Amino acid sequence: MYTTESKDEHLEDKNVQSSTTPQILKDNNIREHEETKQTVLTETEETKPEMEKKSSCPPQGTLNKFITNGVVLFMIWCITWSLSGPEVLPGGNLFGVLIIFYSSIIGGKLLELIRIPSVPQLPPLLGMLLAGFTIRNVPFISEHVHISNTWSSTLRNTALTIILIRAGLGLDPQALKHLKGVCLRLSMGPCLMEACSAAVISHFLMNFSWQWGFLLGFVLGAVSPAVVVPAMLVLQEKGYGVEKGIPTLLIAASSLDDILAITGFNTCLSIVFSTGGILNNVIASFRDILVGVLVGTVLGFFVRYFPSGDQTKLPLKRASLLLSMCVSAVLGSHRIGLHGAGGLCTLVLTFMAGMNWSKEKISVQKIITTAWNVFQPLLFGLVGSEVSVASLKSNAIGLCVATVSLSLLIRISFTFALMCFAGFSFKEKIFIALSWMPKATVQAVLGPLALETARISAPHLEPYSKDVMTVAFLAILITAPNGALIIGILGPKVLTRCDASKIRVELTELKLH
Questions:
Q1: Which of 28, 386, 436, 490 is deepest in the core (most CB within 10 A)?
Q2: Please, which residues have CB within 8 angstroms of residue 491's CB and are 6 or more apart in sequence?
Q3: Closest by alpha carbon to 201, among 439, 393, 394, 402?
């Protein structure tokens, strides 16, 4: 009896437990569901005002920003129209500048959106160039977009000044000291060889005179820091070629290469458009060089100590002083007839100033870069707008492409030969030679400059200057995208990679000679 009853009691307890367990689980589930429901309702109530704000009227966020910027631009246009009248209407200079500026920005942004897997980003300047070319050659748009030669020349010379300022500030005395042998060979040899080869090729292929041939050669001889420097910085950050200082070498040599090309072009330009003899032209060129170096030295010493280091907003004041002095030097030298003095004055002035500023130079460079970001779309847009398909001869494009291609082939071969005695491997020499081909900024400035000078002083030489302009345009179109792609694709494959976090190569440790 006892055992039976105890068993029955045990069974009853189990039944009670089994019957209460689902009930407890059920109650827990109901509570969890109610808590989740309350949480969701609470979050919905909290986010509801935010959703109402986003969809509220007046609009908020990006749409509000877009409308605000549009109204601000429209009001600036209204104020400008009230001051200048027809200049901001279709056919006016300001209207043309604004259309080319914004079209070039849109063209550059569209090119940035084109991303192909495993292919480096194309330089935005190509989109800016094509935007200006489209404006010139679309019939309806070209009828209403017009910029006078004076405005166009002033804007391009200002862009040239900013390029020279960046080149002067970008010259690192330590890099030049420790890389002086290979850096001088790389900056001077290929530029001079391409200038001479382009002069010979254009003389026999395009029937250029020797003066015009060398002028064209120095237009083509410059490499583009706008393409080379960003690509080298990307490789340097990833550690490619850092051990032998290849990115540093190419960045330093690009500035010297541009300086040589611009100086040679100004000398040839004064010879081509001068009415005196060769001896007088040579004396005038040396006079321009002497005046530019002297004035640049004096202004360089001034900028070293004014403004003083205890002033507020020092980088902004220094950048403003540099820009005002250098733009005045370049534009003023053209006004008084000393065409080559302004550029040299700018280079000497900025180099001397940068030597004294040391690390503070970086802040000034950032401000100058901001100014370049404004003038870069104008520069390449104006260059593209100078090329008219209707005015090109039937065989002009073929001859220009042949001249650019042959000169470029000689340049690449000569660059490879010069690097044979600099301590690089075979693959590194191939990379340096191919990296030294992109052309953009200097060609965009110097190409139209010959055309502007011919229109003002010698209209009978305008056909030659148009051919120079076409060659410069095609050189940018061919070499800028291809050079960027070659550097981006070939660099990681042929250069030795070092861990940038563990290996920090200083310029004093470089063994190049």
A1: 436
A2: 231, 235, 240, 241, 431, 435
A3: 402
pLDDT value of position 179: 67
* Residue 304: other Cβ atoms inside 10 A: 13
Could you tell me the residue ranges of all domains in the chain? 151-509
Note the pLDDT of residue 34. 52
Q: List C-alpha distances in Å: 98 to 36, 83, 95, 382.
A: 57, 16, 5, 11
Q: How far apart are CA 377 and CA 367, in angstroms?
A: 17
- Residue 317: name the closest of 329, 305, 325, 307 by CA: 307
Q: Which CATH architecture has domain 151-509?
A: Up-down Bundle (1.20)
pLDDT along the chain (513 residues), means of 10: 46 46 47 50 47 61 83 85 80 86 90 77 86 87 82 85 83 69 86 94 91 92 85 83 82 82 84 73 79 90 84 88 91 80 86 80 88 89 84 80 93 91 86 90 85 82 87 90 88 80 44 41
H helices of 337-461, where? 341-357, 361-385, 396-418, 426-435, 441-457
Secondary structure (H, E, C), 201-235: HHHHHCCCCHHHHHHHHHHHCCCCHHHHHHHHHHH
Residues 379, 152 contacting (CB under 8 angstroms): no
- pLDDT, residue 294, reads 92
Tokens in use for 313?
């907003």
User: In a 10 Å sphere around its CB, with 0-12 CB exposed, 13-18 middle and 19+ buried, how is residue 203 labelled?
Assistant: middle
3-class secondary-structure state, position 498: coil
pLDDT at 21: 45
CA 66 to CA 54: how far, in whole Å?
A: 15
- Per-residue HEC secondary structure of 152-169 comes to HHHHHHHHHHHHHHHHHH
CA distance 7 to 1: 10
Cα–Cα distance list, 136 to 111, 133, 140, 382 (Å)? 19, 5, 10, 9
pTM of the model: 0.74
DSSP secondary structure of 94-126: HHHHHHHHHHHHHHHHHHHH---TTSPPPPHHH
